[in-house]
Amino acid sequence: MTETLHIVGGGMAGSEAAWQAAEAGVPVVIHEMRPKVETFAHRTGNLAEMVCSNSFRSDDHEQNAVGLLHWEMRHAGGLVMREAAAHRLPAGGALAVDRDPFSQSVTDALRAHPNVSISGEEITALPEDGRWIIATGPLTSDALGRAIAAETGAEALAFFDAIAPIVYAESIDMDVAWLQSRYDKGETEEERKAYINCPMTKPEYEAFIDALLAADKAEFHEGETAGYFDGCLPIEVMAERGRETLRHGPMKPIGLTNSHKPEEKAYAVVQLRRDNALGTLYNIVGFQTKMKYGAQTEVFRMIPGLQNASFARLGGIHRNTFLNSPTLLDNQMRLRSKPHIRFAGQITGVEGYVESCAMGLAAGRMAAAEILGRTLPPIPQDTAHGALIHHITGGAEARTFQPMNVNFGLFRPVDGLKGGRRGRKDRYKAYTDRAKQDWSAWVASQEVPA
Ligand SMILES: Cc1cc2nc3c(=O)[nH]c(=O)nc-3n(C[C@H](O)[C@H](O)[C@H](O)COP(=O)(O)OP(=O)(O)OC[C@H]3O[C@@H](n4cnc5c(N)ncnc54)[C@H](O)[C@@H]3O)c2cc1C
């Protein structure tokens, strides 16, 4: 008899993982605690409930990395994308859906599948045997969160994210900014130049503080703030505590000399730190924020050197349970210390419905292949799925790991193409063409001849 795959959590990731494994012929049990145990964000007992926006974001699979993930999931027979198409609402280039019929039909499809059963219970401990995928998402129940922390070490499991904005390196104006670590610290030239620094004069700093104080901010959800606020205050809250607070905190100018104007002492300095091994992404150090997205782009482009910045992701602070995946998971998304347990979805350190669902698709296929004794070729790194998995299980800096959206900054360059903003359209098309080719070959490699 084929071994059963147990999936904890029937959200975006758990639902897709269950579908993929069931379609491959593996019996699946989904353990979903709702509606018996509720979260502060879910409203129904349905699987694949969208907790906030009803959009799967851009559907442009030639010029957008999220659209490419859509394409890849459709091409692999994804359930979530199939039902999203069936319940699509007009939304320009975005894939928006009628949320309740959408999640109802995902639930119905899984209930009707002969290989799937659904068990309405909260899992409170890490299972000692069997084959499992944990896909309990950003609002993993407290008991299971504690059990995971006991296994991984408390410092390797976060209960909230405090995301500083991430900027595409190519969009930073290096005629204004310069490379230097504070006090030139570091053993190697690379370490001594590990940060990008953006200088501010006094009037620029004052205008920046005014804009921060005036910017539109998002509210916290009820139950979201408990206990996590002290270690990482949003920059606008620091600014509210005093106009000079930031200049003595993340924007302090000491130990830095502007290589373009060595004789001028900056009044404040914004630092950016490398965010991935490829060196294509930089995060703005200490700039976690609750400003609304529109306000963030406006305010952050006031920083000299970032006047034309393109953002791979904007900042935020949310309740979010996620693992330090680069240290804890292998490239098959298995917990290194207990390889019979895989993780999928937002808990692995991706961010968003689409990314979570994609990690469910990958984990479902990986687990099914393992159970069926088939060799699954590695997911190609140059696909959107592969780029994300590579990032969370190895490409990202483990020390500063924060949840990540899919974006082209995670992709390896295509040889012979121009960098910079001018060649962007051609470059994105080359990324998506390459990804589609590799993904099609990967999916075809698993098709069992009839
Ligand atoms: C308040 C909020 C707003 C968000 N808004 C957006 C948005 O607008 N757009 C976007 O793209 N992303 C948004 N996200 C992120 C979004 O939740 C995730 O991207 C996505 O739903 C994650 O998918 P998942 O499958 O990993 O988790 P989920 O979809 O949350 O699914 C996890 C499931 O596990 C269940 N569960 C938890 N613990 C247990 C347990 N111990 N035993 C059994 N079942 C359990 C939960 O009930 C849930 O059904 C938001 C997140 C939050 C918290």
Automatic annotation (TrEMBL):
<dbReference type="GO" id="GO:0030488">
    <property type="term" value="P:tRNA methylation"/>
</dbReference>
<protein>
    <recommendedName>
        <fullName>Methylenetetrahydrofolate--tRNA-(uracil-5-)-methyltransferase TrmFO</fullName>
        <ecNumber>2.1.1.74</ecNumber>
    </recommendedName>
</protein>
<dbReference type="InterPro" id="IPR040131">
    <property type="entry name" value="MnmG_N"/>
</dbReference>
<dbReference type="GO" id="GO:0050660">
    <property type="term" value="F:flavin adenine dinucleotide binding"/>
</dbReference>
<keyword id="KW-0489">Methyltransferase</keyword>
<dbReference type="InterPro" id="IPR002218">
    <property type="entry name" value="MnmG-rel"/>
</dbReference>
<dbReference type="GO" id="GO:0002098">
    <property type="term" value="P:tRNA wobble uridine modification"/>
</dbReference>
<feature type="domain" description="MnmG N-terminal">
    <location>
        <begin position="5"/>
        <end position="374"/>
    </location>
</feature>
<dbReference type="GO" id="GO:0047151">
    <property type="term" value="F:tRNA (uracil(54)-C5)-methyltransferase activity, 5,10-methylenetetrahydrofolate-dependent"/>
</dbReference>
<comment type="function">
    <text>Catalyzes the folate-dependent formation of 5-methyl-uridine at position 54 (M-5-U54) in all tRNAs.</text>
</comment>
<keyword id="KW-0285">Flavoprotein</keyword>
<dbReference type="GO" id="GO:0005829">
    <property type="term" value="C:cytosol"/>
</dbReference>
<feature type="binding site">
    <location>
        <begin position="9"/>
        <end position="14"/>
    </location>
    <ligand>
        <name>FAD</name>
    </ligand>
</feature>
<keyword id="KW-0520">NAD</keyword>
<dbReference type="InterPro" id="IPR036188">
    <property type="entry name" value="FAD/NAD-bd_sf"/>
</dbReference>
<keyword id="KW-0274">FAD</keyword>
<keyword id="KW-0521">NADP</keyword>
<dbReference type="InterPro" id="IPR004417">
    <property type="entry name" value="TrmFO"/>
</dbReference>
<keyword id="KW-0963">Cytoplasm</keyword>
<dbReference type="Pfam" id="PF01134">
    <property type="entry name" value="GIDA"/>
</dbReference>
<comment type="similarity">
    <text>Belongs to the MnmG family. TrmFO subfamily.</text>
</comment>
<keyword id="KW-0808">Transferase</keyword>
<keyword id="KW-0819">tRNA processing</keyword>
